[in-house]
Amino acid sequence: MxxxxxxxVGGVTPGKGGTSHLDRPVFNTVKDAVDQxxxxxxxxxxxxxxxxxxxxxxxxAGIKVIxxxxxxxxxxDMIKANNxxxxxxxxxxxxxxxxxxxxxxxxxxxxxxxxxxxxxxxxVSKSGTLTYEAADQVVKQGLGITTAIGIGGDxxxxxxxxxxxELLMNDPETELIIMIGEIGGQLEADAAKWVKADGNRxxxxxxxxxxxxxxxxxxxxxxxxxxxxxxxxxxxxQIMRDNGIHVVDSPAEIGKKVKEILG
Length: 263
Description:
seven-stranded mixed sheet, Rossmann fold, globular, NAD(P)-bd_dom_sf, 8 helices, three-stranded mixed sheet, ligase, EC 6.2.1.5, 13 strands, about 260 residues
């Protein structure tokens, strides 16, 4: 992140306050990082058992954007942390996500920065790897990315597909949005219905992973489990098509479809 140009002002590890790492100060608490270094964003790599507490500590310290990379935080912990964050008007991205990148400006996450080039296409994705894949295809078509948001694949996440799509819909630099989802849950259906209700202001290209997944079995991400007939890839794709979204059946087609729409 530092190499990419992100303004990393320090780290937080309890008990290591007063030391430094990578030429940046280390603090005992997030509050110290806010008070002494002016931190306004936090990226969390804390192990699952303690990660919800780290999220709540960041919100309590006044951090406005909290990005949780950790995978496998217990659901009961996340319900508590999610409500806590919302009450303090902070935005949580993740958990179990690759983070957020605005090419040429900053990346707060673990994505390969060299793949992303500046442009007019926004990406919202539950999958980390497919975020990079979509960005790579867009760049190979001679286009680029405004901001890519990896929202995470756990059952309870802070920022939903719809909320992330809405942010990009209202971003003046973004001309087209790529929405990558997967089986399980209602997030993509909710986002698709919102896009139509909002008047389809910008074209949205959609893809749903997990076409061949058997019902009732968790696949990859903890949130990727088919619970009902609307949770399947086929059902989600139909809902997206019904709401005016340009759906592709293979991730290999994302770049070509974007190029076709933007010309």
